[in-house]
Design goal:
By secondary structure, this protein is α/β, with parallel strands linked by helices. The protein has 14 helices and 9 strands. The strands form 2 sheets. A 6-stranded parallel beta sheet has the order 6-5-1-7-8-9.
């Protein structure tokens, strides 16, 4: 029996890395506002700040770059409203309604929400020029994200292997498999890590798996940073959505520009995954992945496959003692047509575990 580990952004967040959407967008607006305060102008394809034709200027000695999302919101909303004498005559321009909605809601969004938001806006557009413009905005956001992650230099971090090793090397317990009984606990014969992140954090642990599991493979399903052969994938991946099916009746290929299936076809990553899924029975382990609908086509194929006998969630436990196991179960259920089968495959919370706390060397 094999094991398939789904690694998502929660895995990096558990390691203390600033890879959440809120971390990224805070950094983006900090840079934008900081450059505006310094140079009197900021401009890229997504967002612009300028004084326009005004002779008004801030006293640079009294300006501080914001340190929180709320401070960012206060400053930019002050610019927009022009109701405050301190902020009057500053021109704000968003590159699209899509990016404006990102700003309006950025305190509450996750990466999966950004992908869904892009698709929601795409569904509302009828004009080809507007569709092309939205795609350009999304591509720009993706490019800025890659630069941000490269800047973090997460590949230079080093963690003690033992803190996370059991996620990959522990035996598949017989009590965690209900669909088809297994006589005893089984050490996985083959391990595949399906990495939805663009970072190399998981290699802190995979480099020490050798000898414990016969075969270990790693798939960067969403691409790698600064890799032209395996470029990063950001987009929408629910081809079962009713609105998506309408796209296929339209003669406009620009609608598919950021649909994940067509990005997956540019590499052999997805084929490698399916070969593994079809090869033998396996347990799925979810470690930090949201299991959201933006990856529905892939996750449905994995979860509902007859070879998938068990789905075990390593849930996030918050400082106040609460956790996200129930929310994860909601998301996982959305990938099943047969809810009874979902109940048989999803390992109960009492038999699941919180994500370990990694220890840095």
């Amino acid at each position: 029996m094999n094991r398939l580990v789904l690694i998502g952004n929660g895995f990096d967040l558990a390691h203390g890395f600033k890879t959440s959407y809120s971390d990224f967008i805070l950094d983006y607006f900090q840079n934008a506002i900081g450059e505006f305060f310094k140079e009197d102008v900021y401009s890229d394809d997504l967002f612009e700040l300028s004084y326009g034709d005004s002779f008004y200027r801030f006293d640079k000695s009294k300006l501080d770059t914001p340190t929180t999302l709320q401070e960012v919101r206060d400053i930019i909303e002050g610019f927009i409203s022009s109701s405050s004498g301190h902020y009057v005559k500053v021109k704000v321009k968003f590159g699209s309604k899509f990016f404006k909605e990102i700003f309006d809601n950025f305190c509450n969004l996750r990466w999966v929400d950004i992908e869904n938001l892009y698709f929601d806006h795409l569904c509302k557009l009828k004009n080809e020029a507007e569709i092309i413009h939205l795609n350009e905005q999304f591509a720009c956001l993706t490019e800025i994200l890659e630069k941000y992650l490269v800047k973090l230099r997460l590949d230079k971090k080093d963690f003690v292997p033992s803190s996370y090793s059991r996620i990959f090397t522990s035996a598949i317990r017989k009590e965690d498999v209900l669909v088809k009984g297994i006589g005893s606990d089984l050490v996985p014969e083959n391990l595949v890590v399906l990495n939805f992140n663009y970072t190399a954090t998981v290699w802190n642990y995979l480099n020490h798996v050798g000898g414990k599991i016969e075969n270990v493979d790693h798939i960067y399903i969403h691409g790698e940073l600064e890799d032209d052969e395996n470029p990063i994938v950001l987009g929408f991946g629910d081809e079962m959505d009713e609105e998506y099916r309408k796209f296929e009746k339209l003669r406009n290929n620009d609608l598919f520009k950021h649909i994940k299936s067509f990005k997956y076809s540019q590499t052999s990553n997805y084929w490698s995954l399916i070969r593994f899924v079809q090869s033998d029975e396996f347990q799925v382990v979810v470690a930090g992945h949201s299991c959201g609908l933006s990856d529905r086509t892939m996750l449905k194929e994995i979860f509902e496959h007859e070879n998938c006998l068990s789905i075990k969630v390593y849930f996030y436990k918050r400082e106040d003692g609460s956790d996200d196991y129930t929310d994860k179960s909601y998301e996982i259920s959305r990938h099943f047509e047969d809810k009874g089968l979902m109940r048989k495959k999803l390992v109960p919370k009492g038999q699941s575990e919180p994500l370990p706390k990694p220890r840095c060397r």
